[in-house]
Design a protein that fits this description.
Layout: H1 7-15, E1 19-24, H2 61-76, E2 80-85, H3 95-106, E3 111-118, H4 125-134, E4 139-147, H5 151-157, H6 163-173, E5 179-186, H7 193-203, E6 210-215, E7 218-219, H8 223-230, H9 238-251, E8 257-260, E9 270-272, H10 279-292
């Protein structure tokens, strides 16, 4: 029994190939990093903690895509690729420059789509029109960092926008032919467990297609690492998180595709929590908990009126 909607079989069925995301870093910044809204960026952010070694801005797009294809073919037997503009805010430029960059990436053989990571306050109608046009010929997913539905948490993160911005932008994104992706972070010290679980109810009402959940990691060389050192706070233990994420899955819409359920951070950059578990071991523990409780994604989902 498949107890939640996993991304890999979904995207293979949708696109007809064994597809892998290929991350690229095109040297973007963010408005809460460059001084437009704030400086320092989000308190938890260290991009080196989640991008592969071939995806570095010091390499050209061609080098990143060529090296990434070789790596993904060798390791995962990838047949086709979605170019994932991942690092920082990948719509933070003029629509003309963005469109040229995206079309350059789509011109490679075996590239069949784009995934673009961004923020709600860096997207407007003109950029959404561009994505709508690209989606007529390619798979396109615009991935929004929601991070939290609570303004108190967004303020703590130094995010630079409020939750209403997220609601407005997702509403503008609907019905345009591209998929809407989103992710949240659970475990922030500003939120109770019940507040975190309520995010499952809320995001299920937004019309999101592809969803990621990240448990909070304290990563080296971040503002949050300095804050945590000065005033430590409670993070999920391994078993607490396994229990929590199954509770979370039960409340998520059964229609959403789940691309990620936990955070991966290279061990040399991770301060806490250090669970001493591999990616596979965490995934197996979540699946075992689902089976033990005989439960599944959406079991407790209540569709809003």
């Amino acid at each position: 029994m498949q107890r939640y909607n996993t991304y890999r079989p979904y995207i293979k069925e949708k696109l007809g190939y064994r597809v892998n995301k290929l991350s690229v870093d095109m040297g973007f910044t963010c408005p809460n990093r460059d001084g437009n809204l704030a400086v320092g960026g989000c308190v938890y952010c260290n991009n080196d903690s989640f991008v592969p070694p071939y995806a570095r801005a010091r390499f050209s797009m061609d080098q990143q895509i060529t090296n990434g294809m070789e790596y993904l073919r060798n390791r995962f037997k990838a047949e086709k690729f979605i170019i994932y503009f991942q690092s920082y805010t990948n719509t933070y430029d003029s629509v003309e420059k963005l469109e040229q960059m995206y079309r350059d990436a789509l011109a490679y053989d075996d590239v069949i789509g784009l995934a673009v990571g961004t923020r709600s306050d860096c997207v407007d109608a003109e950029k959404l029109d561009m994505f709508e046009e690209l989606a007529k010929d390619y798979y396109v997913c615009v991935e929004y960092g929601i991070e939290s539905i609570y303004d108190k948490t967004l303020d703590y993160m130094n995010r630079g926008h409020d939750y209403q911005s997220v609601l407005d932008t997702i509403e503008m994104s609907k019905g345009r032919g591209f998929e809407i992706g989103a992710h949240v972070i659970v475990g922030m010290p500003t939120e109770t467990k019940e507040e975190m679980l309520k995010m499952a109810d809320e995001v299920s009402s937004l019309g999101i297609d592809v969803f990621k959940v990240h448990n909070l990691h304290i990563v080296r060389n971040t503002q949050l690492a300095r804050m945590y050192k000065e005033k430590p706070f409670q993070l999920f233990t391994f078993q607490e998180y396994v229990t929590f994420i199954v509770d979370f899955l039960e409340r998520i819409s059964p229609d959403m595709i789940i691309e990620r359920l936990f955070t991966d951070t290279p061990h040399q950059l991770l301060i806490a929590p250090d669970w001493g578990k591999s990616h596979l071991q965490i995934l197996q523990a979540i699946e075992a908990e689902l089976e033990k409780r005989d439960t599944y994604q959406g079991r407790l989902y209540q569709k809003s009126a």
